[in-house]
Specification:
Order of helices and strands: HEHEHEHEHEHEHEHEEHHEH
Largest sheet: 10 strands, mixed
CATH superfamily of the largest domain: Bordetella uptake gene, domain 1
Number of helices: 11
CATH topology of the largest domain: D-Maltodextrin-Binding Protein, domain 2
Number of domains: 2
CATH class of the largest domain: Alpha Beta
């Protein structure tokens, strides 16, 4: 009999407790934020993702009335930081940066503590398109020159990337698949090493991001044969795309922000509005345009982009497991 009374009491109290908890959540969201907000950066200080996060934090703090604390969690190609964000408390006081294709390539490889559904996209801020580069003294003046040389002597050409799992590597694999070539990957220890290899003539080609070779290209030390975007770049309209040349090769490295899944709707709305406001702020634009290749995507578009990136990465991954 006592058990029945206990159960009956619980049934009466559960709705009350749920309502009280909901009231507390709503009240907390209404007051948000009441303390500093952590931004997890899944890379070392000083890199492109870190720079993006710090520029955002500098402008955003005055708009939201709280400081942003940058916490760098480098390692494993971003995986450590991605997992830290995915498993953070979804209360709006921890958000983080994502960068592609690494967040997708780890999913393709498996053995990660997150899925794409672990994140609630807030905004994309940067897109750095992939390009195919050769030394200015090279005989290559077009993609057709590269393909002709490789097919005349199969397996003879080398292309440097930053290693398996990155956008450069996937670009090389995609190009080989699209053009029927067999360009050999020569991994470099980052973009600086890539530049040494291509400018020094140690490799035939470099699969890189535009920002990494921009200065050398403009100085006339390197030649960009094609860009890996669906349409020509507005700031480099004379460089053809792989797509217009008949090759299905698209690649970029994008950097944005996300919150852990489960964040309260009201808090999420405050944060997503903040990212939209900051990216349009004249003070932010003045600083960021000198350091970042800005490409804002709202939460919906960024979510669609991430999903598309996972699908593309899975496709390339199936052609060349790493």
């Amino acid at each position: 009999m006592k058990n029945w009374k206990i159960l009956a009491t619980l049934f009466i109290l559960l709705p009350v407790l749920a309502f009280a908890n909901g009231e507390q959540d709503a009240e907390g969201a209404a007051d948000y934020p009441t303390k500093p907000i952590t931004i997890i950066v899944p890379s070392s200080a000083g890199g492109g993702t870190d720079t993006m996060a710090r520029l955002f934090a500098e402008i955003a703090k005055d708009k939201i009335g709280q400081a942003f604390v940058i916490v760098n969690k480098p390692g494993a190609g971003g995986q450590i930081g991605f997992e830290a964000l995915a498993t953070s408390k979804p209360d709006g006081y921890t958000i983080g940066a994502l960068f592609t294709p690494h967040v997708a390539s780890h999913l393709s490889a498996g053995r990660v503590k997150y899925t794409l559904d672990s994140f609630k996209p807030l905004a994309n801020y940067v897109t750095d398109p992939g390009v195919l580069v050769c030394n200015v003294d090279s005989d290559f003046n077009s993609i057709d020159d590269v393909i002709a040389a490789e097919k005349a002597k199969p397996g003879s050409l080398t292309g440097t990337t930053t290693g398996a799992g990155g956008d450069d590597f996937f670009a090389l694999v995609s190009f080989n698949a699209a053009a029927g070539t067999n360009i050999k990957d020569v991994p470099s220890k980052g973009s600086s090493d890539q530049k040494v290899n291509i400018l020094g003539g140690h490799v035939d080609l470099a699969f890189m991001n535009y920002s990494q070779i921009e200065a050398n290209y403009k100085a006339g030390d390197a030649r960009i044969l094609a860009v890996m975007t669906p349409e020509r770049l507005s700031y480099e309209p004379n460089i053809p795309t792989f797509t217009e040349l008949g090759y299905d090769v698209t690649s970029d490295s994008s950097r944005g922000f996300a919150a852990p899944a489960g964040i309260p709707d009201q808090v999420y709305s405050i944060l997503s509005d903040l990212f939209a406001e900051v990216v349009n702020d004249p003070a932010f634009l003045e600083i960021a345009q000198e350091q970042l290749l800005l490409n804002y995507m709202d939460p919906k578009d960024y979510g669609n982009y991430l999903e598309s990136n996972v699908n593309t990465t899975n496709s390339v991954f199936s052609k060349s497991p790493w």
